[in-house]
Specification:
Elements lengths: L2 H23 L4 H13 L12 H19 L4 H17 L1 H5 L5 H24 L4 H24 L5
Helix pairs in contact: 1-4, 1-7, 2-3, 6-7
């Protein structure tokens, strides 16, 4: 790779690392984030009952309510999202390897591509089973699509045909 290609490669991989770390860190304060999102969607003085709303506002308020009830009655279940957050951060660490040595560790990028592809059937299969609205499944699927593009570009820059 030329110096310019290496710079672009590292910028792209850094973007993937950043996205994974941010995704991980935002999984810790879910209740706070949902409170903020609910107030932004329906207003700070509005009724926050899911039954008073439709569409996206209903879904966000329902998830918020479920999360608050779960945290109140079964706080240990939040430990699962703590592990989800930790998992994102650990996955991000694996991308440090190709960041440092693009040729030697380019297979890590292929694992990332496979994970991006795997997001789509996971959301399509588990979403309906868990009662997730279709539009939200599409949002979840978009994470795989958003991440696969930079990974494929990084693979091309590293000399691997993508």
């Amino acid at each position: 790779m030329s110096n310019k290609q290496t710079l672009w490669f590292r910028a792209i991989v850094a973007f993937v690392i950043f996205g994974l770390v941010v995704s991980g860190l935002t999984a810790f304060p879910l209740a706070i984030e949902l409170d903020i999102l609910a107030k932004l969607l329906v207003g700070s003085d509005a009724d926050l009952s899911p039954t008073s709303h439709t569409g996206l506002a209903h879904w966000i308020l329902l998830v918020r309510e479920g999360l608050h009830e779960t945290y109140r009655d079964y706080p240990f279940l939040a430990y699962g999202t703590d592990w989800l957050a930790f998992g994102h951060i650990v996955i991000a660490l694996f991308f440090v390897l190709p960041f440092r040595d693009p040729q030697r560790y380019r297979d890590v990028l292929w694992v990332g591509v496979a994970a991006c592809i795997g997001v789509i059937p996971l959301a399509a299969i588990c979403g309906p089973i868990r009662g997730i609205p279709f539009y939200w499944q599409l949002i979840d699927m978009s994470f795989g699509l958003v991440c696969i593009v930079p990974l494929l570009v990084a693979l091309r820059l590293s000399g691997v045909e993508a």
